[in-house]
Sequence to fold (556 residues):
Amino acid sequence: MQNDIRRTVLIVDDELINREMLGYIVSEDYSVMYAENGKQALDILKNGDKISLVLLDLIMPEMDGFELLDIIHNDDELKRIPVIVLTSEKTAEVKSLQHGAADFIPKPYDMPDVIRARVMRSIELAEDNNIIRATEFDTLTGLYTREFFLEYAREFDEFNPDMSKDLFVININRFHLVNELYGREFGNKILAMIAEHLKAITAEHRGIACRYEADIFYIYSKSQEKCEELLNEHIKMLENDKDGSKISLRIGIYRNVDKNIDIEQRIDRAVSAEKTIHNNYKTAFAFYDTKLHEHEVYSEKLLLELDRAISENQFKVYYQPKYDITNNEPKLCSAEALIRWQHPEYGMISPGVFIPLFEENGCIKRIDSFVWNKVAEQIKKWQGRYSRTIPVSVNVSRIDICDPELESELLSIVKNNEIDISSMFLEITESAYSEDSDMILETVKRLRDDGFKVEMDDFGSGYSSLNMLTEMPIDVLKLDMKFIRNICTNEKDRRMMELMIDIADFLNVPVVAEGVEHKEQYELLKKSGCDIIQGYYFSKPVPLEEFDKIVEKELM
Ligand code: C2E
Ligand code: CA
Ligand code: CA
Fold:
């Protein structure tokens, strides 16, 4: 037995003497309940008492054994309970097996050991089966579980090798919020509802469906000419439902799957299509296509080449000067270090392409460490050459901030290069603060206590509340470029810019405007009280040699 809970056997027989004899035999190993006919037995079974096995007489008043067998066999819950039929007729044995009996025991009961052994074996078999069932089907939705889905998908291919197939990944937008707002029970209801639609789809169009995890479902089915129409019909029904109207779905579709790659990879492709869709308020579809495939291959290649690129010096640090505009003449005051990848095959790759990739993959720290070291080295060199400190801002990715080693690493970089701790500014994007704000605030506070200057990058793009800002340990606000773009043509953007400069005043920190390209923008910013300017108006980010020339010109 799988554990030592005492199980209960239900004995159903209209003759008292039979009930007593059987009860006597099985009560050694089991608790026993009794019923005098099928009707009584059904009441007990439905009553919720956990019955592990039924010993069932066939000929009884009110409801006979066959009738009860049929009811048990056709009931989703009850059919898991094995039934052993008690009979003295050979012909009835076959008939009872056909009606779903697990076994039979011949009357009279003259071999108690045989009876006990049969009862035990039937219970064990049924329990093993139930365990298998429990993992084959997701208990909440009745769909296949992930493992069985993968297995059956392979079988589906094996039995239908020439059939072309589609793979769908279905994800619910903001499902955690659905749970939070309406409760878990409601969330579960939604999941079950979606599952019912998926069952209908796969029944109609040949296929299988599973719940992969929480709110993610897969379908693997026969290819349809217009496969989104196949889903659309059901999505409409879902959206028209009072409860269903509270959700929207993201659906990634890999059509006509390549059978040469394994099923997991096919799923990955549908998932990468799904990932191109953002949290919409309406259900949306995306297809995996050759463009997406090429992009994936390209990304994968870049990821694989990271080590070599570092060791072969393919990464270059560019510098973009920042100018202090608080006096009459703009004056070079610092620079931002921006990385570039000089790729032997693809040419110059912009950080906008590879930074998100390495962030997602967790390797961003390697690149950032590289930049921080280069920059610290450079600050030291300039000090030697010009006898003055040129502070440089480096970007600290939101991923870096979660790294417990960050502080010690930055400290040792500064120490090893013998530069002043306040000459390497740290730019942290505003949106990082909203992720795990307590943890980030803690880290930023420590870095500032050490002496680092912290700039809030892309200010205005995130969702910092005024309240949060006053608690934020920062030294500089750097306005998001998108506000600067139209300050001269769009009244609202100009007001926004002025408002943000007011906020900086209130916080008593200087403001940097980046992305300044034109004289008019520069003049307006200067008039509005902006302190520092970075942008193509003065200079693009340039390689070190060119930046050196800018410094030298400035010093003369
Ligand atoms: P960011 O930190 O906001 O950097 C400013 C971006 O604006 C840079 O793009 C810069 O070249 C660009 N820019 C500066 N002035 C102007 C202008 O007047 N007009 C226009 N249109 N653009 C201007 P870049 O170098 O392509 O970098 C993009 C982003 O990649 C950066 O945005 C930053 O988030 C990230 N990044 C760059 N280097 C690093 C790095 O070393 N580490 C990390 N973690 N991220 C980096
Ligand atoms: Ca930056
Ligand atoms: Ca920025």
Notes: The chain has 22 helices and 19 strands. The radius of gyration is 36 Å.
